[in-house]
Amino acid sequence: MFKTKAMVHSLQAQDEVTILHENGLNDVIAEYNGKRYTAIFNPFSGLYYVDDKYGILMDQHRCPACGEFIPDTEEGTLADKTA
Question: Which residues pair with residue 47 across a beta bridge?
Fold first, then answer.
């Protein structure tokens, strides 16, 4: 888990995100504003691309591609903030 700058779909600009899970270039889970989204890494630009429009994770604790459990972070998840 680490923080980095990434392109955020809704902003069409870079912002800081937390990369929670990475299993190859196309199997990335990122946390942005307390929610978890799918993301990819582009090795040519050196940037992560976070899809906060269409890549919202229905299960905030499970990777949709490999099924791996993703624990909560210090910031928590949306479920923690609304409960």
Answer: 42
